[in-house]
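User: Quick sanity check before I run a bigger batch. Here is a single chain. Can you write out its predicted 3D structure?
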Amino acid sequence: MADVPRDLLQEIKRLEDLFTVDKAKLKKITDHFVSELAKGLSKEGGSIPMNPTWCMSFPTGFETGRFLALDMGGTNLRVCEITLTDEKSEFEILQSKYRMPEELKSGDADELWEYVADCVQQFIETHKLTDEMDTLHLGFTFSYPATQNYINHGILQRWTKGFDIKGVEGEDVVPMFEAAIAKRGVPIHLTALVNDTTGTLIASAYTDTRMKIGCIFGTGCNAAYMEDCGSIPKLAHMNLPPETPMAINCEWGAFDNEGKILPKTPYDVIVDQDSPRPGQQAFEKMIAGLYLGEIFRLVLVDLHDNKNVHIFEGQNIDKLRKAYTLDSSFLSMIEEDPWENLSETKDLFQTKLLLSATHPELELIRRLAELIGTRAARLASCGVAAICKKKGYETCHVGADGSVFNKYPHFKQRGADALREILDWPEKKNPKDEDPIEILAAEDGSGVGAALIAALTLERVKAGNGAGVMAPETFKK
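Assistant: Done. Predicted structure follows.
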């Protein structure tokens, strides 16, 4: 950075100090995380809800049957037909994607469920599924924090991913969905309401027996793992066998809502204050794809408005002033720019923001993207390390899905490096050697995982174990 002026060099140093999370801090965050996981399982609760899911076993790989899977994410709605075949861990999938209209995210609850039901009906009619099956058993991936007293019901705790629809929080979403489906006369039996993270865990374990944790690093962030029922004090009144496994949907985006441990910058504070839910999802707002571009944008606006720093001088930055105009893919493109003169980044700023950036400005922009992306990966690893420490896992696989994990450059390696620091692994003798705990690309949790959980639930009910299933007798029809 020999050609970078002093004012910009000073800002780069300031940003490095702000966004760098060192090994000692990672360890402190992880230790606090472990205690918060335990608190969420206890009767008094905590910021992390640690929701029991009533998914009570890993798959064997020999599940069979045909199922529908519905995935309601932040951007798309996906409907799948999944056929679990006779071959071990083999399946066939037929799917369609539908765009989730932005206006629905803050609109009317009825409009939301009518749209979802329309998409499901369209899929079923297009593929003539009712010609082949009397009842379509559905695994519904509902990727929002929900309290589940039964696997086929779920009370929405709070909206995330930019949704803000009145009249749904605190209510069971299943009857709303079923009412919209019933109007259309489609023979669907909602067998399991599934969080995408739980689906990721189960789908990944279907093909890999070393899989112990499922994670999502995408628009939002979350994790799921199997806990022994005897280690869940808030379920003690159910008198479940203590060794029985129960998938726990952590909803760890809410970690440290109290602001005790996470190293927030002034930009993180603004992101939180300007969000639909200030004071909530503290962890998510520092590592999830929805927010990375916004943190980056806020820093650049702040630098431009600082009279002692000279960046985009004499240029109109109105496009840059628009909140959420940049997403994590914008940062990905900056980090992927292979040219020493950062020509692709220069073109990106010109095309997207109508800003002409000098080479020193491009150097700062590149370093800022690296800092924000690296911090996200390192903080994300604190959650993975915390679950491993709580469960005593010294070796395992972690299945991760989501756009940030799959598409953001260096995210996997940065996360692996942070795990090594937190858990004090020795340096590898051979770079090709596996780490004791590896975060790998997950199987399709919201499709195959949801279908598998529906299959596991049906098997459980048929075997006479209806714990955590609402009206299990209706499943036997």
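The first helix runs from residue 6 to 19.

User: Great, the batch can go ahead then.
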